[in-house]
Design goal:
81 residues, mainly alpha, 4 helices, 79% helix, 0% strand, rod-shaped
Length: 81
């Protein structure tokens, strides 16, 4: 679970950096020459909401299979994989 969470955090940080780079590089095309402050290119609240949702999905995808497997007899857990 820890490894999956670390990968999610790294992916989220990389996604944030790449989205800021893309928004900055494409601001002329996106905003057609309007002077838009760099801080207005991406909404931190939207990013944080999406990132927290991804972390929630990550935790659920790690916990649910482990919980199901822990409820089975060990022989069934080994044979079903």
């Amino acid at each position: 679970m820890t490894e999956s969470l670390i990968q999610t955090l790294i992916g989220g940080l990389l996604g944030l950096i790449l989205s800021y780079i893309a928004a900055y590089a494409l601001r002329e095309m996106l905003y057609e020459g309007a002077m838009v402050p760099f801080t207005s290119l991406l909404s931190p609240v939207t990013f944080l909401s999406a990132f927290l949702f991804c972390i929630l999905l990550n935790v659920l995808s790690a916990i649910i299979p482990a919980w199901r497997t822990s409820r089975k007899p060990i022989v069934e857990s080994i044979l079903s994989n």
